[in-house]
Model the fold of this input.
Amino acid sequence: MLELIIFALFLGFVTIFLVKKTTSNIALEKDAETTRDDRDIQALRQMTPGAFESVIKGLLEDMDLRIVHSTWVNDEEIDILAHNPAPVIGGDYIVHGILVPEDSFVDSIRVIGLSDTVRAERSLKGILISTGYFTEEVNKYTEGAPMELINVSRLREILRQRGLPWPA
Done:
């Protein structure tokens, strides 16, 4: 009887392992597939770190935010502290930019990290700007949080609306 229980447990773990290897439990943004061949999107996705920083800072300054400080966390991520000097509605914004490699997505861990930082620093809002797309699970972590998520498609739309340049 003990052998049967051990065999059943072993078989259960093997089944779980195989299911995890063959299925994806993370739904991805639908927009990722529809914009795969878009030249503007590809140009934004292939930006250098310097160009990415320039695009983000240009956007923030166009929105009348003052850049207080910026720091590259690593080769793909930049943190920017921006300040809105307007009375009553002004305050600090924490902007986190992520250069996302092709075929990669931004998952909830990065969103949770930004959300925690915004709360800890008592900033008005956190803004996560990505040259990629977010996993669908991210949406449940932004509900109620003072955050804005901007994927590459939304970034292109904002830059177009404001007449701002981006790498071609």
Observations:
- The chain has one domain: 26-162.
- The CA atoms of residues 10 and 16 lie 10 Å apart.
- The two ends are 68 Å apart (CA to CA).
- Confidence is low (pLDDT under 50) at residues 20-27.
